[in-house]
Design brief:
The complex is a heterotrimer of chains A (385), B (275) and C (129). Chain A contains 14 helices and no strands. With 385 residues, chain A is mostly helical. The radius of gyration of chain A is 21 Å and the shape is globular. Chain C has 129 residues and is mainly alpha-helical. Classes of the chains: A mainly alpha (385), B alpha+beta (275), C mainly alpha (129).
Chain lengths: 385, 275, 129
């Protein structure tokens, strides 16, 4: 089936070529990082995780959101999603691959990555994250490819795939829960030391993922003969309309607990992110932009009139995506490290090489999703013909 | 070993003597603390002894004399720790095993409005706490950092993958990462620059490092370098399970506090703050 | 029945040629025979940790085992064949008898184009830059 990705319109080839170029630039800077060390990034002794780990955290959410298509279709027999479940699964493959690449890019000694398997350490959450991420990648490859192959032949999916599909449901929850536990279990980091971390990760994932999926579905409809469907897009919109307010609610829960309890260890981080601390305020405009975009998106999504308007829905989805990306891709990680456990402040901002390496990995993800979607759409177009 | 040869004794004889010395020292109640510095590695030494619990007491009553950084200098020299003076912001990629910080930073939340005036201006010496319940060990995905039976939280530079999970886990900021090659190298031969201590290795970029209570010196019957370097004898190191040790005596005599003891990490560095 | 027979076989031939490059590169492009390395042996000591043949084939395993034992808490001393206990240390024991990293270690490593990562951190104090 993969051969269907080898031919395409000029626009398709230009897009793929452009992505390859961005990847090449990223690889070039990665070679520099490999040779010189992570010192070329903006990270420091005080802020030891930065853009890479933040992107990884955000993308775990995008990957997990495939479950929002699998549950209605396979568990509730919501037939309409049969058309687009594959889009969710293929998006998950691209997203998990990016997650793994971001972790690899963040390692000081990437050549030793296999030590995690050579010296397995069940008490480390990172060990379990490795297990669940690779497992989820495998599950989605297996399920996505098998169901699409069957569809291409005009046959129903084989029976043996069902257990794997059911397994992928709790597995999707697990990837984001385990990722939240990376942060939520650390004694000295007040910002992350919250039981709401995993639920909040899941709600933001189920907002950002489906939002991205709606945008991709609209793009697929515009660029190909395959229409993911009006009803499908609307149902996804409803999912975002539930998840995003829930995410804001959980943020409000955090804000209440932190400020009402008035415990400095927890409060200082929120102060830094939203108001600035001792004159350090690099992230303040970003955090408020995130809040404003999220609130705006909620208004557009919750109101049925605006949600049913596909143009406004697309705007709301874009705003949701950017809002959650700022929240997790910028604030979540830096916020935990500033101030440091000694209450000293070192601010973090990614350097150009760091940003370009990250962009390169995003381009790899985009290329994977492009190729997989091309295959899926080609199969669908063949059915239409 | 070279010490032995220097004394004009053959290796075998010297080692036998050193071994006897260690044995007799262990038999004396005051025991381990009394072992004189300079003794060479005893036969069979190097394996951590279960049942010991190494700890340090920092006497912070008088504070260090102004500007004294002897303990830090000794540590840097002993372990080939660079200062990165050539970098525009030396703090960013800094490596430090032991350092001095304000009372507020050492004990956040313990500051009082009307406390002894000198506390706010005093610098407190901080280092890895060698927690009995170390979060860094809990989170390490490769067991590159692990706890020895004698309580030392060790770091295996060879196994570290540089994920820096331990740095996020440590509530004391006691871990450093090699963001770059710590020492310049000869471009042609790849040999590192002239290092302060030729008997201690350097590190490759991309691994985490930290204080090891000078495990390599303990194996030779020496005290940690910082303890040895402190002229005021403000750092005391020893075995908490030895009732006659200097650390036990100080803990008995004074009320001591530990950094962020409420986190349940059970730090093994104790601070005498008041009389 | 194979489509594009010519292209496929040409591709296969190029693939095989590339994979076999270690065998033909030197005879074709090489600058002649390289003399085998002659590592400088210790002048005084006659007895190594293991017999010469075993050390030649397995010194990396010995060093690796020493490393695990020392760093991960199994002890520092090694009973040498001459009966004396010596410290397990690359820089402080091996290089005491073997006079220099350059004359001994590097000779073979360079010849074989291997770069042991030991030297990322350990070094011969006599040969520092």
């Amino acid at each position: 089936m993969l051969e269907k990705a080898l031919s395409g319109s000029t626009r398709y080839r230009a897009w793929v070529g452009g992505l390859l170029l961005v990847i090449l630039v990223g690889v070039g800077f990665y070679v520099r990082q490999f040779n010189e060390g992570l010192g070329i990034t903006g990270m420091s002794r005080d802020v030891t995780w930065g853009f890479y780990i933040a992107q990884f955290t955000f993308l775990v959410g995008v990957a997990a959101s495939a479950v929002m298509l699998v549950i209605p279709y396979y568990l509730h027999h919501y037939k309409a999603f049969g058309k687009i479940t594959i889009l969710g699964e293929f998006l998950a493959i691209g997203a998990v691959t990016m997650c793994l690449l971001f972790i690899l890019a963040d390692l000081g000694q990437p050549m030793r990555a296999m030590n995690v398997i050579l010296h397995p350490t069940p008490n480390s959450v990172l060990f379990w994250d490795m297990v669940v991420l690779n497992g989820y990648l495998f599950l989605n490859l297996l399920v996505g490819w098998t169901t699409l192959t069957a569809e291409k032949k005009g046959l129903p999916s084989p029976k043996w795939i069902k257990p794997f599909i059911y397994l992928s449901v709790p597995w999707a929850v697990s990837i984001h829960t385990v990722t939240a536990f990376l942060y939520a279990g650390l004694p000295g980091r007040g910002f992350w030391l919250t039981a709401v971390m995993a639920p909040r990760f899941l709600t933001s994932a189920f907002a950002a993922g489906p939002a991205l999926l709606i945008l991709l579905a609209l793009l697929v409809r515009k660029l190909t003969k395959f229409d993911p469907g009006k009803e499908q897009i609307q149902t996804l919109g409803t999912i975002v309309a539930y998840a995003l307010p829930l995410n804001l609610f959980l943020l409000a829960c955090e804000v209440f607990t932190v400020f009402y309890s008035n415990i400095p260890d927890h409060k200082l981080h929120f102060q830094y992110l939203y108001f600035g601390l001792h004159g350090h305020n690099a992230l303040v405009p970003w955090m408020w932009t995130s809040v404003a975009l999220a609130v705006g998106a909620v208004v557009l999504l919750v109101n049925p009139g605006t949600r049913r308007n596909e143009t406004l829905l697309a705007w709301a989805c874009g705003m949701t995506f950017v809002a959650t990306w700022i929240d997790k891709g910028l604030g979540m990680i830096s916020g935990g490290f500033v101030p440091n456990p000694l209450e000293e402040i070192t601010e973090y901002w990614p350097t150009l090489p760091e940003a370009l390496i990250a962009l390169g990995i995003w381009a790899i993800g985009a290329l994977i999703v492009t190729v997989l979607y091309k295959v899926a759409v080609a199969v669908r177009e063949q059915e239409l013909a | 070993m070279s010490t032995g040869e220097g004394k004009g004794m053959d290796r075998r004889g010297f080692l036998r003597l050193a071994g006897l010395g260690a044995l007799s020292a262990a038999a004396v109640p005051a025991g381990w603390d009394l072992l004189k510095p300079g003794a060479a590695l005893a036969a069979g030494a190097g394996a951590p002894v279960a049942g010991r619990r190494y700890a340090m007491v920092v006497d912070a009553r008088t504070g260090c004399p102004d500007g004294c950084r002897d303990c830090i200098g000794a540590c840097n020299t002993t372990h080939n720790i660079p200062t990165f003076a050539d970098e525009p912001d030396p703090r960013r990629h800094e490596l430090k095993w032991i350092w001095q910080t304000s009372f507020h930073s050492a004990f956040p939340g313990n500051e009082q409005e009307f406390a002894r005036e000198d506390l706010e201006s005093k610098q407190v010496t901080v280092l890895c706490n060698h927690c009995q319940n170390p979060p860094c060990v809990r989170v390490c995905p490769t067991k590159a950092t692990y706890q020895r039976p004698d309580g030392i939280v060790m770091m295996d530079f060879h196994r570290c993958i540089g994920c820096r999970f331990c740095m996020a886990g440590c509530p004391y900021g006691s871990r450093s990462f090699n963001w770059r090659d710590p020492w310049p190298r000869n471009a042609a031969t790849g040999e590192p620059a002239k290092l302060p201590n030729p008997e201690y290795p350097t590190r490759m970029r991309g691994v985490v490092e930290k204080c090891t209570f000078c495990s390599e010196r303990l194996d030779r019957g020496l005290q940690p370098a910082c303890v040895e370097a402190c002229k005021e004898k403000l750092l005391v190191f020893g075995d908490l399970h030895d009732a006659g040790s200097g650390v036990r005596a100080l803990l008995k005599e004074h009320y001591t506090i530990r950094r962020k003891a409420n986190l349940g990490t059970q730090p093994q560095v104790y601070y005498v703050i008041g009389a | 029945m194979i489509y594009d027979k010519g292209k496929i076989f040409l591709g296969l031939a190029i693939f095989v040629a590339l994979v076999a490059s270690p065998f033909w590169y030197n005879p074709v492009f090489g600058t002649g025979k390289t003399a085998p390395p002659e590592p400088k042996l210790p002048k005084t000591a006659t007895l190594c940790v293991l017999p010469k043949a075993q050390m030649r084939a397995g010194h990396m395993q010995v060093i690796y085992d020493w490393r695990e034992t020392v760093v991960r808490g199994g002890g520092r001393m090694y009973r040498h064949p001459d009966g004396v206990e010596r410290e397990m240390s690359l820089s402080n024991t091996c290089l005491k008898c073997h006079e220099g990293k350059k004359e001994f270690c590097n000779t073979c490593h360079t010849y074989l184009a291997v770069k042991p990562f030991c030297w990322d951190c350990h070094f011969d104090p006599k040969e520092q830059a």
